């Protein structure tokens, strides 16, 4: 049994008007205060709404034990970067975490490891925990390169000053995101083991405390099996985090 408390993180992506986000977070807060309270010490829970909803979601929490994070940040503290949001701005709103390097950012916005590392460094400087996403494409897996790709992305994206407790890694095979497909338990175990070994080379024994999340089509029906895999310390959940009942069921899978 791992000493690392699992983190169940929801990535709402570009979904939800204010009423939707508030209804979702209120349902989660109610569950955490009610039926979920008995299970609360088994996991940490985080939601990452669109930037427009971070402040109202935090206001609606009413002290519920649920963290709120951003989905991306700029590497600079402020300046002439139209449309961007800095880690310091997220911190100022009350966010605790920020996702960096999600494959949709790497693809849609052509972000590379160096940019992801700069964003993660900014998150640390602002007092946020960066959730650094890495993962291979289907072509890379088919070519037998999955382990080499995640090792390269991890080493390229991990900022100076990272420790086992101030960053989180999310392994998200690109081909599993939003597709309903997941790697085999053996493949997940192999990649997570490699990530921890690479992290050990960078941060030493702190790697024992590092939380490595699995992400990609996590659902209530497969959560328990995925969370039981050695070196899996929680989940980054996309689609299924938009329904309170599904997100809760995933948390109960820990
Ligand atoms: C994600 O985009 O981070 C993700 C894991 O999505 P989904 O759960 O929908 O596959």
Automatic annotation (TrEMBL):
Matching CDD domains:
TIM
Q: What is this protein called?
A: Triosephosphate isomerase
Biological function = Involved in the gluconeogenesis. Catalyzes stereospecifically the conversion of dihydroxyacetone phosphate (DHAP) to D-glyceraldehyde-3-phosphate (G3P).
Q: Which InterPro entries match?
A: Aldolase_TIM, TIM_sf, TrioseP_Isoase_bac/euk, Triosephosphate_isomerase, Triosephosphate_isomerase_AS
- Reactions it catalyzes: L-erythrulose 1-phosphate = D-erythrulose 4-phosphate; D-glyceraldehyde 3-phosphate = dihydroxyacetone phosphate
Gene Ontology CC, one term: cytosol
EC number of the protein: 5.3.1.1
Q: Specify the enzyme's EC class, one word.
A: isomerase
Location of the protein in the cell? Cytoplasm
Q: Which residues does the record give as substrate binding sites?
A: 11-13, 178, 217, 238-239
Which GO terms of type biological process are on file? gluconeogenesis; glyceraldehyde-3-phosphate biosynthetic process; glycerol catabolic process; glycolytic process
Name the gene for this chain. Answer: tpiA
Q: Return one GO MF term.
A: triose-phosphate isomerase activity
Q: What's the main place this protein lives?
A: cytoplasm
Q: Which family does it belong to?
A: Belongs to the triosephosphate isomerase family.
The UniProt keywords, alphabetically, are: Cytoplasm, Gluconeogenesis, Glycolysis, Isomerase
Q: How does it assemble?
A: Homodimer.
Q: In which pathway does this enzyme or protein participate?
A: Carbohydrate degradation; glycolysis; D-glyceraldehyde 3-phosphate from glycerone phosphate: step 1/1; Carbohydrate metabolism; erythritol degradation; Carbohydrate biosynthesis; gluconeogenesis
Highest taxon of the source? Bacteria
Q: Which organism is it from?
A: Roseospira marina
The catalytic residues are: 102 (electrophile), 172 (proton acceptor)
């Amino acid at each position: 049994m791992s000493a690392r408390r699992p983190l169940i993180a929801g990535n709402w992506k570009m979904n939800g008007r204010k009423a939707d986000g508030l209804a979702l977070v209120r349902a989660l807060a109610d569950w955490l205060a009610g039926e979920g309270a008995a299970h609360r010490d088994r996991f940490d829970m985080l939601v990452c709404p669109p930037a427009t909803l971070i402040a109202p979601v935090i206001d609606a929490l009413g002290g519920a034990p649920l963290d709120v994070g951003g989905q991306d940040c700029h590497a600079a503290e402020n300046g002439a970067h139209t449309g961007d949001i800095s880690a310091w701005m997220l911190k100022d709103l009350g966010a605790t975490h920020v996702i960096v390097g999600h494959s949709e950012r790497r693809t849609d916005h052509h972000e590379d490891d160096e940019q992801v590392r700069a964003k993660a460094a900014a998150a640390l400087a602002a007092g946020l925990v960066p959730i650094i996403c890495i993962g291979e494409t289907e072509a890379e897996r088919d070519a037998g390169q999955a382990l080499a790709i995640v090792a390269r992305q991890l080493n390229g994206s991990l900022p100076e000053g990272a420790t086992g407790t101030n960053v989180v890694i999310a392994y998200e095979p690109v081909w599993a995101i939003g597709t309903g497909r997941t790697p085999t338990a053996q493949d997940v175990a192999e990649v997570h083991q490699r990530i921890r070994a690479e992290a050990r080379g960078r941060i030493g024994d702190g790697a024992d405390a590092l939380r490595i999340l699995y992400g990609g089509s996590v659902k209530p029906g497969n959560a328990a099996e995925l969370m039981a895999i050695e070196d899996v310390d929680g989940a980054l959940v996309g689609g299924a985090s938009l329904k309170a009942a599904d997100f809760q069921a995933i948390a109960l899978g820990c």
